[in-house]
Amino acid sequence: MTIIEVREVSKRFTSKKGESEALAGVSLAVREGEFVCLLGPSGCGKTTLLNLMAGYDRPTAGGILIDGQAVTSPHPKRITIFQEYALLPWLTVLGNVQYGLRIQGWRRRETLETAQKYIQMVGLEGYEDRHPHELSGGMRQRVAVARALAVEPEILFMDEPFGALDALTRLKLEEEVTRIWQEKARTVVFVTHDIDEAIYLADRIAVMTPNPGRVRRVLTVPLNRPRDRTDLDFLRLKREIYAEFELAARPAFHYTI
Asked: Does residue 206 belong to any structural domain of this protein?
């Protein structure tokens, strides 16, 4: 069942330098429980599209529906995880994971039990009393994931959440996110510029190209999980996606007769 519908969405921004078109005529459907990656180079409108889906901004033209309702603002059942972690520095790991639950009015005992469950799920048991400055970047991002999952969102939006991490930590967190997604069966829309990451994570990949941002192609990833980055089918799909970017980057030649 389709849960997110992006219908011919365009987005323009106005600045002192004039008007720029970030997105033009973008359409995309995301099914319930699906893991979809928005993949493309910087400036192709990936984050803009994610922000529109999450309700942080409004399209200039077109519309976005979630569960058949127009998206006009953020919703507590749709949580966004950013690259910057956005943890509260004065709270411990446990306090950060409990924070959203307390805002929603959960009872103290339920809040504690739920927070502890998700802290354990992301492998941070024993760190409950640590503050963000005492954690590595990868551990802080685990806290952000636990905090997001604790409020049991229907949809999880992730904006290049592992972009600032070292390669080994990034691979580990990709494995963790895949495992958690399989356990919790949430709908995930994940922004990345990394082809390997998109193939490893996604059910489908929306390949986006810039000037202005468009969805050039949506590819299904026909690989079993867990996925092997050295597998021939993985590498074949990587070459296919790379070819899409090469084609999009080629200049158009116009001949006058």
From this structure: yes
